[in-house]
Design goal:
By secondary structure, the chain is an alpha/beta fold. It folds into four domains: about 250 residues, Rossmann fold (3-Layer(aba) Sandwich), CATH 3.40.50; about 170 residues, Valyl/Leucyl/Isoleucyl-tRNA synthetase, editing domain (Isoleucyl-tRNA Synthetase, domain 2); about 150 residues, Isoleucyl-tRNA Synthetase, Domain 1; about 80 residues, hypothetical protein PF0899 fold (2-Layer Sandwich), CATH 3.30.2320. Helices cover about 40% and strands about 20% of the residues. The chain has 23 helices and 30 strands. Strands 9, 10, 11, 12, 13, 14 and 15 form a seven-stranded mixed sheet that branches. It binds one RNA strand through strand 9, strand 10, strand 14, helix 6 and strand 15.
RNA sequence: AGGCGCGUAGCUCAGUUGGUUAGAGCGCAUCCCUCACACGGAUGAAGUCCGCGGUUCGAGUCCGCGCGCGCCUACCA
């Protein structure tokens, strides 16, 4: 056999990708039982995001585990999907085509917008917008598919899905209807966390706190019938003054006790509001007395509800101050004209601008500001994808009831094995801190439509209590485009007719169903039952509160089960300064050039070196180390195979391993197999790699091959030569398999040089069995348990002597004296012929004695 | 503010359930072109295992306290 001289990753990668595809070796076999099947719930990456070196990292981690399980004989269910619905895609399309979605515009089948056009955004209809989203999504998916393929991820590509495709829409809508039917979903009109930029409601999981500079403004409020003429209230949001509906202080607060029951008069707007005691008012904060607005924060909402306060909304959905008339119903004022004169100045302004205006007006008004403002920094809630502070805006939204299930959800989390274990804590902490039901509806376009219509009353108004739901077999539906059964499109929006719910579902409403999506759930109940709950969910830690959480919620609500038995958490790739990689910081490393430069195996090696859950600084040296390992494996394999290639395989085998040094190396192999297997069973691929790599390089290449080499050069097929050849073949075949999960391309290449036809092995290394102790059970242990260790002692001593004498390693040595205890002497004697040949020693002398530190003391005399 | 994790050689990190002299890769120094590999090999220098206290015959490993870093959760008067 002619083996290539140098290893070039590129030359073999595409070849094996094609081969694996042709032979379909990664396909799931639905005929096999659950107990012999390993089921993975893969995270569908957001395809509108950029390809990131972190993708290579965490997706490799799944593949190590999966390939190991496959070699353990498991039938692998390893689907992959793409997460494409939602805001990121919408934003990308808006930027790419410079368009704006206007839902009222009709569909234009001939719409032709070009990318990169400058100027004002072109308004286009909803369906056109969705079409563009789908188009972009397709392209993005292709880029991801290419990268995932190049990395050698062993997916069953026939299970591919996209979270916006018809199947996922069906699953997601089915889930919604089921939960609605079971009473877990409800619709309500109430204050909700609202992004004024994207103009949509969002859920608690999408909120991100950011520290922002702000300031306390100390405003004087009037007091009716009081013993004083004013109270001072500290506020960071003076622009909400017009929304003030009450003033609260702690019941025990002596400063304000006597004011409870009286009314305060808001400055500028002169609105009388009640002064009430409430234990939630913190005497330490500000001046200890707080104005309640509709709505400044979550506590305002609670107070508003508890005391049944009026609603005075001033911030609109677009973040502009709404038009308001004082003196009108609900907008009482002691001086409506003055109030309106002030409000007119902020009406229509953006919140932030309105704040400045109000402050300016206040500053000009005599006796309003009590003392200079006090700068401070505080946490402000943002939508994770937005850059404007969230507002609490009363709107009609759909919710999944979860607040009443916190205990049960915590319990579910405890049934799952989190790896590393402490990651389970993050889940529990999140569940503990839940403060609102899951807001499901989004006022967006590219998403799974909420499958609900409402009847329209004779007065032309929507009757939100009179829902029309689709039949399950009609899913997926688009209520804005499809008419419900029994109606015609002409009745849309007409009195006595219907309207479609205009909203789409939170992307997590669909992403939380990836197990059900993959199993096909109610569409193929038998398949679902055979796959669910799944074995593992690999993911990274920042989506514990979203993806893991919501998936656990859905599995619990739908089937009372956990979705998977293990959650396997990958860490993050940080930049070399240990900062998070992000597009905005410009420190993102793109993956393709790395694959080009180092090859997929080397990149995977880099990923494999990181332990589960541990964030890892990006370090190119590790790629180089990976490449070195590949080169070493290539060269060693070429050599090892060359040492026995011309011997009839029938003459080689475990029964031919008779030489003591050979049996010694086999003995070393046992703990390796045991420990690496245990590590892998525990999802600790990094530990397994470290063990295998160390054995391969140090034990096998540096010592054993050198030791046994001499015998393999014998002319005759001596017992010693056959023993060495058999050992090399056996150990090498074990190591290639143990490296296969990490280096799938190179190991497959090497495998095909030699082992594809072996009994008990598979044509592909990736379907061949992971090494077990059974394979070497028949090989007796060496007579002396110290043989390997004592031999290495001699090798190291002689090498050291040669290095210190600046000699070549092949320089001859006339005599070596080994001082050791009797059993170690015997051990060395068992390998002494190999040692002499390897180290070019003429004569070895043994002296029984105490060697000092170590097993053997070695004295070397050069020639 | 609470919770979690981390702190080991110049750098990046291992360290199996507590056990001799704490390891690897990179880097550094010296040497070796040995018929698989110079993308290699040999040898070496280099660590108060963050600090203090405790448990133990024995602690990098277990416990307590402290310091530093990171993350999670909370924090909008």
């Amino acid at each position: 056999m002619e083996l290539p001289r140098k290893y070039k990753a590129k030359d073999c990668e595409q070849r094996w990708l094609d081969h694996w595809k042709d032979t379909n070796i990664f396909a799931y076999d639905p005929t096999r039982g659950r107990d012999e099947t390993f089921v993975v719930d893969t995270p569908p990456p957001t395809v509108s995001g950029s390809l990131h070196v972190g993708h290579l990292f965490s997706y490799s981690h799944q593949d190590f585990v999966v390939r190991y399980q496959r070699m353990r004989g498991k039938n692998i269910f390893f689907p992959i999907g793409w997460d494409d619905n939602g805001l990121p895609t919408e934003r990308r399309v808006q930027n790419l085509y410079n368009v704006r979605c206007e839902p009222h515009i009709h569909y234009n089948p001939d719409l032709d917008v070009k990318r990169g056009r400058k100027g004002n955004p072109t308004p286009i209809g909803r369906l056109n917008f969705i079409e563009l989203c789908e188009e972009v999504t397709k392209e993005d998916e292709e880029a991801f598919r290419n990268l995932w393929t190049r990395l050698g991820l062993s997916y069953d590509w026939s299970q591919e899905y996209a979270t916006i495709d018809a199947h996922c829409r069906t699953m997601s809508q089915y889930s919604f209807l089921k939960l609605l039917e079971d009473g877990h979903i409800y619709q309500a009109e109430r204050p909700v966390m609202w992004d004024i930029g994207f103009q949509t409601a969002i859920a608690q999981a999408e909120i991100e706190d950011k520290e922002r500079p702000s300031a306390f403004h100390f405003l004087r409020f009037g007091v009716e019938d009081g013993d004083r003429d004013h109270i001072v209230i500290a506020t960071t949001r003076p622009e909400l003054l017009a929304s003030c509906v009450a003033v609260l202080a702690h019941p025990e607060d002596e400063r304000y006790k006597n004011l409870f029951g009286k009314r305060a008069i808001t400055p500028l707007f002169k609105v009388p509001v009640p002064i009430m005691p409430d234990p939630l008012a913190d005497p330490e904060k500000g001046t200890g007395i707080v104005m309640v607005c509709t709505f400044g924060d979550q506590t305002d909402v609670e107070w508003w509800r508890e005391y049944d306060l009026p609603l005075r909304q001033t911030i609109g959905r677009n973040g502009l101050m709404m038009p308001v008339t004082f003196g009108a119903e609900g907008w009482d004022s002691l001086d409506p004209d003055a109030a309106n004169a002030v409000y007119t100045q902020i009406a229509g302004q953006f919140v932030k601008k309105a704040q400045k205006t109000i402050i300016a007006i206040a500053e000009e008004t005599e006796g309003l500001i009590d003392r200079p403002k006090e700068p401070l920094t505080h946490a402000v809630k943002f939508f994770e994808k937005g850059d404007l502070p969230l507002e609490l805006i009363p709107t009609r939204q759909w919710y999944t009831r979860i607040m009443d299930k916190k205990e049960a959800l915590t319990e579910q989390g405890r049934k799952i094995a989190w790896r590393p274990e402490f990651m389970g804590k993050r889940y529990e902490l999140w569940v503990e801190g839940l403060n609102q039901d899951w807001c499901l509806s989004r006022q967006r376009y590219f998403g799974v439509p909420i499958p609900v219509w409402f009847r329209v009353g004779d007065d032309g108004r929507a009757l939100y209590e009179e829902r029309i739901l689709p039949a399950i077999e009609d899913l997926p539906v688009d209520p804005l485009n499809d008419a419900p059964a029994g109606f015609t499109e002409e009745q849309r929006g007409q009195p006595g007719g219907f309207i479609g719910d205009p909203d789409v579902l939170d992307t997590w409403a669909t992403s939380s169903l990836t197990p059900q999506v993959a199993t096909k759930w109610f569409k193929d109940q038998a398949r679902h039952d055979n796959l669910f709950p799944m074995d593992i969910r690999p993911q990274s830690h920042e989506i514990i509160r979203t993806w893991a959480f919501y998936t656990i919620v859905k599995a619990y609500l739908h089937s009372g089960e956990i979705p998977w038995r293990n959650v396997v958490i990958s860490g993050w790739i940080l930049d070399p300064d240990r900062k998070k990689m992000s597009k905005s910081q410009g420190n993102v490393v793109t993956p393709e050039p790395l694959l080009d430069e180092f090859g997929a195996d080397s990149v995977r090696y880099w990923a494999a070196r990181a332990r589960l859950g541990v964030d890892t600084a990006y370090d190119e040296l590790v790629f180089k180390t990976g490449k070195r390992l590949c080169t070493k494996l290539f060269n060693a394999s070429k050599f090892v195979i060359g040492r026995f290639a011309d011997i009839d395989p029938a003459q080689l085998g475990p029964d031919k391993i008779v030489a003591e040094p050979d049996r010694a190396i086999i003995a070393e192999l046992r703990p390796l197999i045991e420990r690496a297997t245990a590590a892998f069973d525990d999802f600790d691929y990094a530990q397994a790699l470290s063990l295998v790599e160390d054995f391969f390089w140090r034990t096998f290449c540096d010592n054993y091959i050198e030791l046994a080499k001499g015998r393999t050069y014998k002319e005759e097929l001596t017992e010693g030569r056959l023993s060495a050849a058999s050992t090399l073949r056996l150990v090498h075949r074990v190591l290639v398999r143990m490296l296969a999960p990490y280096l799938p391309f190179l190991t497959e290449e090497v495998w095909h040089w030699c082992y594809t036809g072996d009994a008990g092995m598979h044509e592909s290394v990736h379907r061949s069995p992971w090494p077990t102790l059974d394979e070497i059970a028949a090989i007796p242990a060496p007579r002396n348990a110290l043989t390997y260790q004592a031999s290495v002692g001699v090798i190291e001593a002689v090498r050291k002597a040669k290095a210190e004498a600046n000699l070549s390693m092949k320089a001859p040595v006339s005599r070596v004296t080994v001082t050791a205890k009797a059993d170690a002497i015997e051990a060395v004697q068992n390998a002494v012929d190999d040692l002499k040949e390897m180290l070019h020693i003429e004569q070895v002398e043994f002296v029984e004695g105490t060697p000092g530190p170590g097993l053997v003391a070695v004295e070397v005399r050069a020639q």
